[in-house]
Specification:
The chain is mostly helical. The protein is 79% helix and 1% strand. A hairpin with a 5-residue loop joins β1 (13-14) and β2 (20-21).
Length: 458
Amino acid sequence: MGSREADGAGSERPAEDGVAEAPGEESRRLTREQLFTLAATATINFSSMICYSILGPFFPLEAERKGASNTVVGMIFGCFALVNFLTALILGNYLTLIGAKFMFVAGMFVSGCVTILFGMLDKVPSGRMFIGLCFLVRAMDAVGFAAAMTASFSILAKAFPNNIATVLGSLEIFTGLGLVLGPPLGGFLYQSFGYEVPFITLGCIVLVLVPVNMCILPKYDSIPSKESFWKLILLPKVLLLCLTIFSLSACLGFLDPTMSLFILEKFKLPAGYVGLVFLGLALSYSLSSPILGLLSDKLPYLRKWLLVFGGLITALCFFMLGPAPVLHIESQLWMFVLVLVLIGFSLGMCAIPVFPEILQCAYENGFEEGLSLLGLVSGLFNAMWSLGAFAGPTLGGFLNEKLGFEWASAIQGGYVLLSGLATGIFYITEATRRSSSSSLQNPHGNNEERTHLVGSET
């Protein structure tokens, strides 16, 4: 198998058919297949995020009217993530057997249909029946979402092996655009036309995109691999990166069922304007992600520092979001929006470098290149993100109900603080160990070897 460069920036990397790709070829000219791949994955990033984010401004309030407590609302949001976690683990293992393109298109079709079904839930009687159907429909939506996103990550890494962080960062513009447009659009449609219209409108848009992607998305085939999730996740570095993914997702998921209620109660804004507050986080995340992705590819050694400092900044921001009562600072709308902007940027610092870091670690530990490995990595990434998205709203909804938003957000920030500190300690330990190993292999007294090394560098 030999040594591999996961980031591929400025290096030549062999393709699976044995033909070497020229360095920087992807950055100079995109092939037709690559353009179609970008277009297809952009549609799933945008449509999935806009369908997900429309719930924020009005669903928690609507669910409370239907007899669901704040904790139950958090569990409904968390149900999506838990099913997504399990589905991503399974589909990541069987991506090559099912087919990446089929999984992508089928997942998108299921998401469109289920989004429309979610708009019918206001016709259901209040109480247990409404709550039960919310869980069922969200679980079905999670299956479709997990299939589409797991296939999407794998296809992108296959199509852009040398620039995966740059491409992922650039496509986060569409993720951010979905997050930006979802809350205000959902709030406006809900306020103007009622509960059903936001879901029916967006569900139909997703279904229209299904045949488009069937035509334009290239088909990628690969030979199944014997590698497993357990071999990958038990690598110490990968395990630590999974903790980072989990903590980031938990913090972001915590905001879904709680932030809109806090804004309505604290700042007395109408429901239609609540979605505008969400713009601070989404815009800063989507605008900074392409730059962070480019840095991650061009300067791979910066990834570790982006992960560490991004986690620490995120923790500080969640401590200030309430703010935490121990600070004795009165919450104000301008400060709340400013903290959301910083959270969007710091989340990008952590989230963008994680995928190429896991991929690099897999290559360094002998995993074979190919779509099968990409399926494992993308499935693992989505699974860990979904696990955090389950814990965030579920535990966050409970803490918000018992302790209030201020303390709950500070506790959520503790997750990222722990992961940031653990990541920093790991990278420092790893650098110290490599330095010691290098010193043992190259004694200072060996002048002949030092002369050889100097000559090879020049």
